[in-house]
Amino acid sequence: MSAFASIERRFDAGVLHLTLNRPEVRNAMSRAMVRELQEALDVAETDPQVRVIVLRGAGGHFCAGGDIHDMVAARSAGKEAIANLSEEFGRLCAAYAQSSKAVVAMVEGTVMGGGFGLACVADVTLAGDSAVFSLPEVTLGIVPAQIAPFLVERLGFAEAKRLALTAARIDAQEALSLRLVHEVHPPGLLDTALQRVLNTLMRGAPGAIAASKALLRRTRLVPAQALIDEAAAVFAKAVQGDEGREGGMAFIEKRKPMWAPR
User: Fold this and answer.
1) Mean pLDDT by 10 residues, the chain (262 residues)
2) CATH for 7-201?
3) Residue 2 has what pLDDT?
4) CA 188, 194, 198 angle in degrees (round to 5)?
């Protein structure tokens, strides 16, 4: 993996920690950062040692959204350049949403625009009580375009529309009430909460987690009746696979399965 300039990466005990590292601009997402996040994910997807990906921001903030300087440069290059910039970020959001790995976001301070979108694509989102969320795009004369599907998926149509149109700022507790985030903690307890969530995720079999995520994504698009045969096939494959056999034996023998932390 090439050296990164705008994110930091650290691997520890099955967990890939990716830190957005442009604190001087509250981790605004440049095109370079988007590409580095994509490259880090591409490598992780092919590495069986990576079980969980954690996204967080440096300097007390998660992400202030897209880098305005990149947008201005793209505007001067024409409509196609702007569309390409947007498409790159859209592909990044989709890639993290569809990752076979469990994805956890730890959000603090500013969580705006594209950063708000990343918080929505994570499987588990933990917030510090300093977190403030907003979608300011319409106040800048632009649209929360690529994150729109993930806003609706996480918040529901009515709340996604309200927040996108009003550009309202919401604190961590309101985000929790909307289920935008799953837990809220003071700074001193946020890392403890993360470790507890990681321990829980590491109890799950990697293949089973990937298959569960894929099947759950299908349920958004296909009626339950039409999924019966597909779900049965997924279940049978899991039961007959190595993980299913190991999980069954571990249960009978009253021990942890091979993939669980000791």
Assistant:
1) 85 97 96 96 97 97 91 81 92 97 98 97 97 96 95 97 96 98 95 97 97 94 93 96 96 95 74
2) 3.90.226.10
3) 58
4) 155
Q: Looking up tokens 């700074």, which residue turns up?
A: 187
Q: For residue 172, give every residue at least 6 positions away whose Cβ sits within 8 Å of its Cβ, in sequence order, or none.
A: 127, 128, 129, 130, 131, 132, 181, 184
Separation of alpha carbons 133 and 128, rounded Å: 12
112 touches 136 (CB < 8 A): yes
Where do we find the tokens 């921001």?
A: 57
